[in-house]
């Protein structure tokens, strides 16, 4: 009985931990898009060049969030 309760607590802690870990990539994505909007507003002719960097930065930051959720599932099985 106690083991089942402990397993539920570990799962809850893992969910809270991932929720806190997802804040970093969310802030990063917000900063990337705000920088793109600012650069396009200042120099509209460079929108094509900066769009490439926008998507590259977005993919790299989003990969951090996906790694976080993958590690959460892996660690949940080992605890």
Order of helices and strands: HHH
* Backbone structural class: mainly alpha
Mean model confidence by pLDDT: 84
Overall helicity = over 70%
CA-atom Rg in angstroms: 19 Å
Question: What is the overall silhouette?
Answer: elongated
Query: How much β-strand is present in the residues?
Result: under 5%
Quick overview:
The protein is an all-alpha fold and 79 residues long. The protein contains three helices and no strands. The model has no long low-confidence stretch (mean pLDDT 84).
Q: Strands, helices and their partners?
A:
Elements: H1 2-21, H2 23-42, H3 47-78
Helix pairs in contact: 1-3, 2-3
Can you put this structure into words, describing what you see?
The protein is mostly helical and 79 residues long. It has a single domain, classed as F1FO ATP Synthase (Up-down Bundle). Helices cover 91% and strands 0% of the residues. The chain contains three helices and no strands. Helix 1 runs antiparallel to helix 3 and helix 2 runs antiparallel to helix 3. It is elongated and about 55 Å long. 0% of the residues are buried.
Key attributes of the depicted protein:
3 helices; 79 residues; elongated; F1FO ATP Synthase; 91% helix; mainly alpha
């Amino acid at each position: 009985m106690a083991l089942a309760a402990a397993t539920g607590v570990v799962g809850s802690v893992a969910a809270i931990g991932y929720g806190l870990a997802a804040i970093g990539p969310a802030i990063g994505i917000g900063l990337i898009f705000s920088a793109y909007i600012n650069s396009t507003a200042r120099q509209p002719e460079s929108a094509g060049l900066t769009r490439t960097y926008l998507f590259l930065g977005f993919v790299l930051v989003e990969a951090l969030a996906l790694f976080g959720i993958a590690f959460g599932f892996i660690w949940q099985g080992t605890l």
